[in-house]
Design brief:
Length: about 170
């Protein structure tokens, strides 16, 4: 079935007609021209397609485009403001948090979400103190756990962790 949906991508509205089985990843890349999210595995295993949907990270290869209609979608292209790199993007560049760059857009979107989750007090599987009033420093172990859904086949993990911790 073909439906018309409205995708708000990086604060720009795109009215597109899609098959109701089309993934958000394919709609972003082919219908809106946002090529930051990558199709690495198309099975939700690598994280290269990670985008922010209303501020929360999702794997766009597993999300139907119709489910994102009306939501605010942020890709790596929308993280920077006014043509300047965002601090997290700058940290990836300065601390060599990438090698080939294929996974970098998904890594950066996940890093933005990781920082927001930590700031909101959301515990991870390695959080030592999960009491509601706690606020601990973000550690390398926390970053590794929270970023574990994003693969880097080049092995830039130590630099990625340093880039996230530099925030």
């Amino acid at each position: 079935m073909v439906v018309e949906i409205s995708l708000r991508v990086n604060k720009t509205v795109h009215d597109v007609v899609v098959d109701n089985r089309r993934t958000l990843l394919d709609a972003l890349r082919e219908d809106t021209g946002n090529t930051g999210p990558k199709k690495g595995c198309d099975h939700g295993q690598c994280g290269a397609c990670t985008v922010l949907l209303d501020g929360r990270r999702v794997l766009s290869c597993l999300t139907l485009a119709v489910a994102a209609s009306g939501a605010e979608i942020t890709t790596v292209e929308g993280i920077a403001a006014d043509g300047e790199l965002a601090p997290i993007q700058r940290a990836f560049v300065e601390l060599d948090g990438y090698q080939c760059g294929f996974c970098t857009p998904g890594q950066i979107c996940s890093a933005v979400a990781v920082l927001a989750e930590h700031a909101a007090g959301w515990p991870s599987a390695v959080t030592a103190d999960v009491s509601p009033d706690r606020h601990s420093e973000l550690t390398a172990a926390e970053v590794r756990e929270r970023m574990s859904g994003n693969l880097c086949r080049c092995g830039a993990y130590p630099a990625i962790v340093r880039a996230v911790l530099a925030q």
